[in-house]
Amino acid sequence: MRVVTSIVVVGLLLTTPAWAQHKAPTSVGPDPSSPDYHELLLDIGEKGTVYHQIETIKTETRDGAAKVTRTDAGYRNDFTLGDDGYVVKKTLTRTSITMPDGQVIDSKSTAPEAVMVRSLIGSFSELTFIADDSLTPVRLENWPELRERSKATVLSLIRASGEKTSTDFEQSFAKIYDNLIGRMSSEQAADLYLKADSFMAIAHNVGLERNKPVITESTVIVPLGNYPLAMRSALTLTEWKPEANSARLSYDVGPTPEGMKAFLTEFMPRFLKEAGAPENVLKEIDTSLKNDPKSSFDMSTHCDYDVAIDNGLVRKGGCRQTSTFHLLGEQFSKVETYEFSESFTVPN
Known about the structure:
This protein is α+β, with helices and mostly antiparallel strands. It is built from 9 helices and 15 strands. The protein has a domain at about 75-200.
């Protein structure tokens, strides 16, 4: 049981969302005088509407057994430029979810499980957030009210499920929810609930030389343990085709080798020991990490973008976020794939 607990803790450490911190460029910046230098400026005005189409595939694999969940959704984003940036009202216009068992949940689904899932989604179907001039989400507005509404929805679904639940159970659930979600700031909540928006914004308002990546280092906080993990990203302009109104970009981000080594060999053993892992488990983990840490863990993201040169919107893009670990005979991976597009045009 102690070994299983240790594996679960490791999995949580590596797959829990991390909160972004400061960024600092580490490479020589692009040369604006170069013939290969080009800018992709977001030309959306001070007020308007942008439509998002987002498909998400989440695959969790444990010891060869995979569970795949697919979500296809559309959003309307009404924005107005204010003193602190853009105020964006994000409204879910359609959604369809395919569960691991093949069940499809959409607006026509009537099964009790489908109704419960739709109710939960409904609690987040309309969000207002503050974004910077690149439409990068900065913080969720009215986050405390949204958080409490979501918790109340989950509790009501539990009561309506027909399962007998005690008051102690509901109180325990509320406590766990508060510990996991309730401590988030409005900025952290924006990172969690608006991940696709953040991915799209990476390609907005950039100036780059073709095939010369801009390298940036940053720090993210791993919530379970509040560990500051050093990250390194690279943004590259790979194609510039004015005749097709198209620019192509690639983006990669992951822990720095030094940051990952410190996380795995210094922080994690200490954290597991404090969590109650026995000495023999700690020794096995230490040996595994020293032999080949790269084969044990992967925390990386890769994105590709096709951006419209005339307005700076992402015509088509995709990101693949991977978190895996292989330790003590246990294998676990979580891969999230996002396919997205944004447009001024109402989708069919």
